[in-house]
Design brief:
326 residues, alpha/beta, Rossmann fold, 3-stranded mixed beta sheet, NAD(P)-bd_dom_sf, NAD(P)-dependent_oxidoreduct
Length: 326
């Protein structure tokens, strides 16, 4: 679908941001990307702007003339969430309000607590157990308020992200497997018989692009759940074995004891430990509304998604997957 509209992606260096840039380009959008340090291998066809999401003037300058702002920026390694997450979102909301753009947030399940499990619908109660979850709730509340005041918003809530373009905050690439090393073992963080929600980033980005192609049909405050893959530990290990073509890959346990020992000294590990409750109970996103709106399932076969992710992480030779989901 071709369009004359322009989208700004804030946080375009990250996994969600970079994949969203590519998806919007495929759908004919003019794409503007803002990052503090644009990558050397900047995406072809994207207009890159240097800017800091914490600086309101940078976001406002980058947003001039755009129709959509995708707020895909996150502090690396969970560092400093209390200090930066809401100010960054406020800057994007202010810019969207000033230029008349819709603001888009790739959401997570951190804003839910056990009272909403195991099957999460869009209107499920949000009673998080962690400070990070509380911040996610606050982010969504600010977007809902912005929509009431005339700035439309779209939230696509997802499970744990994985994909070929970023491994920084990915459970798959930093927990289950090791970047740059052949896959010989999958270190699973939860019980092997408990289901968990996963979201392949190219599919997430493609879904966002399809939703934005039909912006006129979206509610002012639109929320959808991206079902992705719901696998228990055994299913994930088997999927990795099939993707790699090695039935001898070992199913191991993630070393939570080591995280516990080191968490007083490492903020990233401290935040990881707080999210352990999501591995102790089944958590699944109900995507009934999303599939009804799209009219088609947006999910890449799991083996292809895993193989492409492992290639991007340097765990498999490059080039064995020829195309991402389209």
């Amino acid at each position: 679908m071709k369009t004359s509209k322009t989208a700004l992606v804030v946080g375009a260096n990250g996994g969600v941001g970079s994949e969203t840039c590519l998806a919007l380009l495929r759908h004919g959008w003019q794409v503007r990307a803002m990052a503090r340090i644009p990558k050397a291998d900047a995406l072809d066809g994207v207009e890159w702007l240097r800017g800091d999401a914490m600086v309101a003037a940078d976001v406002m300058r980058a947003a001039q003339g755009v129709h959509v702002i995708v707020h895909a920026v996150n502090p690396p390694g969970y560092r400093g969430w209390d200090k930066v997450v809401l100010p960054m979102l406020d800057n994007s909301i202010a810019a969207a309000r000033a230029v008349g753009a819709r603001i888009v947030l790739p959401g997570t399940i951190y804003n839910y607590g056990p009272d909403a499990f195991p099957l999460l619908r869009e209107d499920a109660p949000q009673h998080p157990q962690t400070r990070k979850g509380e911040l996610r709730v606050a982010m969504e509340q600010r977007l809902e308020q912005a929509a009431r005041e005339g700035t439309p918003a779209l939230i696509l809530r997802c499970g744990d992200f994985f994909g070929p373009r970023s491994t920084a905050n990915s459970w798959f690439s930093q927990g289950l497997t090791k970047p740059g090393a052949p896959v010989r073992k999958v270190s699973y963080p939860g019980a092997f018989d408990i289901g968990h929600a996963w979201a392949y980033l190219p599919d997430v980005a493609e879904t966002l692009a399809k939703l934005l192609d039909r912006s006129d049909e979206l509610a002012d405050f639109a929320r959808y759940h991206f079902g992705g893959y719901w696998l228990d530990g055994r299913g994930m290990v088997e999927a990795v074995r099939r993707a790699v073509g090695n039935p001898d890959i070992v199913a191991g346990r993630f070393p939570w004891w080591l995280v516990t020992l080191a968490s007083p000294f490492v903020e990233t590990l401290r935040e990881m430990r707080k999210m352990r409750y999501l591995w102790r109970t089944p958590v699944q996103l109900d995507d009934t509304r999303l599939l009804a709106f799209l009219g088609v399932s947006p999910y890449t076969p799991i083996e292809q998604a895993i193989r492409h992710t492992l290639e991007g992480a340097g765990c498999l030779p490059a080039g064995s997957v020829l195309a991402t989901a389209a």
